[in-house]
Amino acid sequence: MGGVVFFLSVIGPGVRTLNPPGSLEFLTKVGPRQLRYFMGAATGTIIFGLALLLYAFGTNASYWPSSIEAGFGLGLIAYLIAMLVTVPTFRKANSMALQIMANPQHGPPPPEFGALMKRANMAAVAVALILFLTLVFMVGTAF
């Protein structure tokens, strides 16, 4: 959750203030590392969260608090959106950015590039909102 919020509130707006060649360079150099970090952190969170759930409440799902189940379900939905929409879209945008940098043209990037970035940003916002709901359910379990 922290990584997604940091990306949406700091990295994204900062990249938008760069000139087009600078933002393309940032995307091609930092983007792949950022994606690997998010994929690893998200996968680790799901795996260790499930392990913690099983350790704390056992394998019998009837003993699991319903808010934990809801939170885990929402977290899994956020994970799937990230892995099936956000990551592939950012990869396509990165590939297109590499092509643009290899064949520089004057003017703005092609509209397809803007559409990919918009789709990836919308998916990242959706993931952040779902993760916020996940956090609410998980914290609600403590009360």
What letter string, H or E per element, gives the SSE order?
Answer: HHHH
* Mean pLDDT metric: 87
Helix content range: over 70%
Number of beta strands:
0
How many angstroms separate the termini? Answer: 21 Å
Portion in strands = under 5%
How many domains would you count in the coordinates? 1
Structural class designation: mainly alpha
- The gyration radius over C-alpha positions equals 18 Å
Oligomer: single chain
Tell me, what's the shape? Answer: elongated
Individual helix count: 4
Q: Strand count, sense and closure of the main sheet?
A: none
Low-confidence segments, ≥5 residues, pLDDT <50? none
Description:
This protein has helices at residues 2-16, 20-57, 66-102, 111-141. By secondary structure, the protein is an all-alpha fold. The protein has one domain. α1 (2-16) runs antiparallel to α2. The longest helix is centred in the first third of the chain and has 38 residues, at 20-57.
